[in-house]
Amino acid sequence: MNVKGILLDLDGVLYTGDNPLPGAPGAVRYLKGRGYITRFLSNTTRYSRATIESRLLAFGFDIGEDEIITPAVAAINYILETGLKRCHLLTTRDIHSEFEAAGLFHQNTEADWVVVGDAGDNFNYDTMNQAFRLVQGGAGLIALEKDRYWMGSDGWMLSAGPFVRGIEYATGKTAALIGKPSPGFFGMALRDMGLIPADAVMIGDDVVSDTGGAMKAGMQGILVKTGKFNLEALVGADPGPTMIIRSIAEIDTIL
Hints:
Elements (H helix, E strand, L loop, with lengths): L4 E4 L6 E2 L2 E2 L3 H10 L3 E5 L7 H10 L9 E2 L1 H12 L4 E4 L2 H9 L11 E4 L8 H12 L3 E4 L5 E4 L2 E4 L2 H11 L4 E2 L5 H11 L6 E5 L6 H6 L3 E5 L6 H4 L8 E3 L10
Parallel strand pairs: 1-4, 1-12, 4-5, 6-7, 7-8, 8-11, 12-13, 13-14
Antiparallel strand pairs: 2-3, 9-10
Helix pairs in contact: 5-6
C-alpha cells in the first residue's frame, strides 16, 4: 500500500472504553517511526481535544493535541465562517469549553445554531424539547456526528445519531453533518496534512463512518475487527473497505 499519510480513528481502533487495545501504542510508534504523516480523526463528541490528549497520554500513546481532529473543531470553524455565532449546545460540558475558548457561548434563546453532539446523560426530554423549539423557530441544526452507537467500557452505547434523527423528524429539517463521514471533515484533515486523497488511508472500525466516508472522499480504507466492528454491516457496504485486518497491532504487516 503506497501512501504518505495515515488517518486513524480513536475509539475502537486505539482503545475501547478506558483501556488501550493490545499493541496499539506500539503501532502508533511504528507508523511515526516509518515517517508517515499521522492525524487522529475522532467522531467522539463527548470530550475536548485537551481531554482526549490527556487520556491518550495516560494510555501510553505519543499523540499531541495538534494531531487530533474532532467534529467540535470543524463545527467551530464552520460557525465562525458564517458570522452567525449564537449557539445552543446540546453537548457535554467539556465540549462547551472548546466552543467558549473560540468565543462561542451557549445560550438557550435566540440561537442561530443548535449544535448536537453525544451529550450522554444531558439527553433528556427537556433538553431535546428545547433544541426542537429552537430549530422549529429558525435556528440551523448542526450534527457533530450521526453515529448510531459506540462500544463503551460496559457495552454498546447510543451515540448522537438517534437524537439528531429525532430532531430532524420532528422539525422536518436536515442537520448539517460536520463529523465523519462528511467529505468536508476528511478534506479538513487532508489539508492539515498537506496531502491529496490518493496519498492517504483511513483506519477505522466503522465501515460507514470511517472507511466508507474516507473512500468516498478518494482515500483508501482499512477496517479493523475491534471496537464496533460488525460483520453484518459489511453485507451490502458501499463501498466496502480496501482491506480488513484483525487489529491496529497488525499494521506493520501491510505498511
